[in-house]
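Table S2 (text version). Query chain:
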Amino acid sequence: MPITPIPSSIEGTLDMLAKANYIGDRSLATVLFLALRMGRPLFLEGEAGVGKTEIAKVLSAALGRRLIRLQCYEGLDVSAAVYEWNYGAQMIAIRMAEATGEGDKARVEQDVFSERFLVKRPLLQALEPDPNGPPVLLIDEIDRTDEAFEAFLLEVLADFQVTIPELGTVKAAQPPIVLVTSNRTREVHDALKRRCLYHWVGYPDAARELSILRAKVPGIPKKLSAQVVAFVQALRKEDLFKSPGVAETLDWAGALTELDVVALDPATVSDTLGALLKYQDDIARLDGTKVKQLLDEVKSELRAAE
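Corresponding structure-token output:
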């Protein structure tokens, strides 16, 4: 199976995204094209739900590459991210060597710390050769980890290699395509960012969000899709704990479609806010009067735009 080449232009990158139903803007296509051509990791920062993780999935599907995902969390360490030894199998091998009297101590030690006892985690897997081309490595939500793990990643992102004390340095023959995402719950250290190209993934404008919605929820009525996007855009201007992202827009639109809604009304909006907002304080702020006010403003703006 031939390896799918990376796009040869910014326009080709935009086209690749569009074919996968990812409606990106030119600034994203530009930095993505540069990251692919230069072999540099891409650091994607932005609010949750704006489509950062989806970019890695699109790249994997469009280029026919394996997607390897390292989901970050507090307390993530080398044993979960890179490798660990299969201690149970090692102990069995040692006991068998002792029982049979085979081999000296140095030889047994060398054998149990060989690759057959190595459990490979996402970062190590991403450095291995693949017949379909270097994989897409997604390091998702790096801001959930601590600074110690960030420091460890510097070797991976700078030289595409990891060091295993018992085996030595493992270096990728061809660097993986690396995307690092952050929801900015904390600042990521400059040393890590310097090793990457950077792009802020913001909320889309109304026109692009409408295109995304119609691509992802093709059965939605035209009038309803316009009202959904306009209402969500208006909500993002309110003082909310967590503004809805594109993912929430799609969830809400899908829920409204399942209910056979053809146009928004205050009661329907209030009843379905749980698909759009994920914090009770935010839902409580939008009482019936506020919902009606926002909806009236949205409909008035849409009528003026017709």
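Notes on Table S2: Residues 46 and 252 are 21 Å apart (CA to CA). The beta strands are 42-45, 67-71, 83-85, 118-120, 136-140, 161-164, 168-171, 177-182, 197-200.
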